From TrEMBL:
Gene name of this polypeptide: qoxC
Protein function: Catalyzes quinol oxidation with the concomitant reduction of oxygen to water.
Topology with respect to the bilayer: Multi-pass membrane protein
Protein name: Quinol oxidase subunit 3
Native organism: Lysinibacillus halotolerans
InterPro entries: Cyt_c/ubiquinol_Oxase_su3 (IPR024791), Cyt_c_oxidase-like_su3 (IPR000298), Cyt_c_oxidase_su3-like_sf (IPR035973), Cyt_c_oxidase_su3_a-hlx (IPR013833), QoxC (IPR014246)
Length: 198
């Protein structure tokens, strides 16, 4: 395996470059998945039947907490990648750990939010609007959950093996995934929550 020392560690081998390219292609498929969910939501958002409307169930406080927490986690994962490029393994692990803790807080607030929806009668069976809403939020939440386990496994590998071209590549790809989830959340925050509250 030929290592190009003029490149950052995560790009330092041909295999690493291919892995990153492959992951960008995978993110293209993920964009299509979320585009489909958003399209379904926008088509069905007015179909509330006898159930609650967006304005009746959305609450700004949990949504703001989720947004601040997730945007902060995007910043900390960026700091983690920066520390990785400087070869500072412990700093990188610390920032990745903070990122995962913030992801856990996000999920906790989302579970609280889903419980609130259930108590006000907004379930999958209530209306086309609630089904589309819960599917979109649940898909994003599922991705965050997957990210927590993935990030944890990467941290364990970095702790055991140190910063190698392979572990750096995995860590960088994970950071791309996490940033992607943040971008999707910005769309959810802007076009589902804020629009629904207006």
């Amino acid at each position: 395996m030929k290592i190009d020392h003029s490149q950052p560690l995560e790009y330092s081998t041909d295999q690493n470059k291919l892995n990153i390219l492959g992951f960008w292609i995978f993110l293209g498929a993920e964009i299509m998945l979320f585009a489909t969910l958003f399209t379904a939501y926008f088509t069905l958002q007015g179909r509330t039947g006898s159930g609650p409307t967006p304005g009746e169930i959305f609450e700004i406080t949990p949504v703001l907490i989720e947004t601040i927490v997730l945007l902060t986690s995007s910043f900390t994962i960026g700091l983690g990648v920066h520390a990785m490029r400087l070869g500072r393994k412990n700093a990188m692990l610390t920032f990745f750990g903070i990122t995962l803790l913030l992801g856990l807080v996000f999920l906790g607030v989302e579970i609280f939010e889903f419980t609130h929806y259930y108590h006000v009668g907004a379930t999958y069976q209530t209306s086309a609007f609630t089904a589309a809403l819960l599917t979109t939020l649940g898909t994003h939440g599922g991705h965050v959950t997957l990210g927590l386990f993935w990030g944890l496994f990467i941290m364990i590998q970095v702790k055991k093996r140190g910063l190698t071209p392979e572990t750096a590549n995995k860590s960088f790809i994970f950071s791309l995934y996490w940033h992607f989830l943040d971008v999707v959340w910005i769309f959810i925050f802007s076009f589902i929550y804020l629009k629904g509250m207006m």
